[in-house]
Design brief:
40% of the residues lie in helices and 24% in strands. The chain is of the alpha+beta class.
């Protein structure tokens, strides 16, 4: 099972995704593929905000199969963009959890 923890309320925003869906074998699992693209979307948001100078410090990105952690601290000007981006990613995970409740859960 994939466990997703998302924090958009603190100064530092974060996404933690651990585990494997177990829907199908490795390389064939559509739930893992969907979760992966949501993780990469959040990571790219953080990197793009860094390139645009919208973060207070460099983002922390740990992206390994079955273990992803993303943390970034937007400045005041980038806060709304960061929250909206992570809200969208969170909505995607919520859709996955409703469609595949045995494979993914929101913590």
């Amino acid at each position: 099972m994939i466990t997703v923890t998302l924090n958009r309320k603190a100064e530092t925003l974060s996404l933690c995704v651990t585990g494997h869906a177990g829907f199908a074998s490795m390389g064939q699992d559509i739930v893992c593929a969907a979760a992966s693209i949501l993780v990469y979307t959040a990571a790219e948001l953080a990197l793009d905000m860094e390139r645009r100078g919208q973060l207070r410090r460099a983002p922390v990105l740990h992206l390994k199969p079955g273990d992803a952690q993303i943390r970034f601290t937007p400045d005041a000007a980038g806060r709304q963009r960061a929250e909206t981006g992570l809200e969208t990613v969170g909505y995607g995970f919520s859709l996955l959890a409703r469609k595949y409740p045995r494979c993914i859960r929101l913590a």
